[in-house]
Amino acid sequence: MSAYLIRRLSLSIFVLWGVLSLSYALTCMAPGDVVETLAGQRTDEATLARMRERLGVDQDPLTRYTLYLRNLMTGDWGQSSRYNEPVWSLLLHRLPRTALLAAAALNFAIVAGILFGVLAAVFRDGWVDRVLSLLTLFGISAPVFWIGLILIWVLSLQFRWLPPSGYEEGNLRYLILPALALGLRSVALITRITRAALVDIDSSQFLRTARAKGLSPLVIYGKHALKNAALPILTVIGLDLGSYLSGSVLTEQVFGWPGIGRLTVDAIMARDTALINACVVFMAGIFVLVNLMIDLLYGVFDPRVRSDP
What we know:
309 residues, 2 domains
């Protein structure tokens, strides 16, 4: 294993520990008593004491933090106080739904974003480029929840083509709207990055050679230039994939999609400390893993990255 990979793995472990510690500290400093929130105001003190002992909140924060780290190392992520289930099983149950939404949104974003980026580069400074520039500016600026509401109003309430929200096993009609809302911002980002990367290498020697051979602009940009401009595009795709797989909170909440993002919101509303920490660490772990994979894929597109400094 190369020294570069070892450094990246070490840094990833440090990042995960930092996220875990910060999340645990914030949940401990949150105002109010989580036990009273769960039990209700009319519960007697004896019942509250038993609940504190069962949830492990009767000890000081440092002791609880030490025990929590020890349990994590043994694979015990804790018990959800709201669902009364192990938090790891809750995450695994919601992960396939978030992964399905992420795959649909990312495939849509990659195909549309790269296609629009190549078109903008081929017809640079023309009306096609200006229209795409305006649309991508709108896509980057508009909040995802606002885009989701607009899609619901147009495609569901006005035309009645698609269901506005919800989830049904095996019914892909429920997937289209949240995938569109989640992927539109990525389409705009990938379009802009693709155009900028292609324009940046436009004066390269190999492109001049391709033009001298009489190849069409779409072949020149779409086949030859795109591979050499892949690194910044790959970076944007990797960041978006990490965001999708960790659960897009706003999208899942707007469309009632039962994924990890919505599970995180439910945990926060219920003051479910164990589930909150598990969701945050899981999201951070997905981001770290995806970025590590992207770093390794850099060597596929640029052999200079493979060599250690």
